[in-house]
Amino acid sequence: MVAVIDYDAGNIKSVEKALLALGEPAVITRERDVILNADRVILPGVGAFGDAMEKLRSYGLEEVINEVVARKLPFFGICLGLQLLFDSSEEAPGVQGLGILKGKIVKIPENNGLKVPQIGWNSLQFPHKGRLFEGIAKDAYVYFVHSYYLQADDYGIVTATTQYAAQIHAAVEQENVFACQFHPEKSSDVGMRILKNFLRV
């Protein structure tokens, strides 16, 4: 069973639906015991960094997430869920992220006539191909919706990148922690394969 963490962010139901389509039981919850007894845990979401951290803390979920990671349960951050795993975001100066992974979230530069937020399909490159991308070809397209992007401190954890006004660290993997900036649940067959790969780790 997969626990999908509920902290009042957007887009949580679509992740649950994708898991159910793969035949995987899933529950949207903020109950500590349910999360810690799950086989895998997903932190999805669309929204603002500062509001999201406030909600995670007010629901006592920061400690639960740290415990999930410490217990080595497979953990997957999606979109805002990726951003929250890092130290800080330009979107919310002074707000501490979870700090489970090292790096910062910065604004996509508004240049080259590219629109911000980035909304749409972009291709991936794999500098260090992680377990989420087994069986997925280079330049596969996935779906993004974001105005901020990751700059990881350690390039060695970056498993996928894309170009959009800058080199965007689009996915990371460190031990039992996985995360991607794009939405696998909205990325057609490629995205479903990524979710299926997560269910196998």
Q: What is the CATH architecture descriptor?
A: 3-Layer(aba) Sandwich
Uncertain residue segments: none
Helix content: 25-40%
Mean pLDDT: 96
How does the helix and strand content classify structurally? alpha/beta
Helix tally equals 6
Number of strands: 12
CATH homologous superfamily assignment? Class I glutamine amidotransferase (GATase) domain
Shape designation = globular
Estimate nothing, just give the exact number of structural domains.
1
Widest sheet, order of strands: 2-1-3-4-12-11-10
CATH topology: Rossmann fold
Can you lay out the helices and strands and say which pair or pack?
Blueprint: E1 2-5, H1 12-21, E2 26-29, H2 32-36, E3 40-43, H3 49-58, H4 61-70, E4 75-78, H5 80-84, E5 88-89, E6 103-107, E7 118-123, E8 141-146, E9 148-152, E10 158-163, E11 167-174, E12 177-180, H6 188-200
Parallel strand pairs: 1-2, 1-3, 3-4, 4-12, 5-6
Antiparallel strand pairs: 6-9, 7-8, 10-11, 11-12
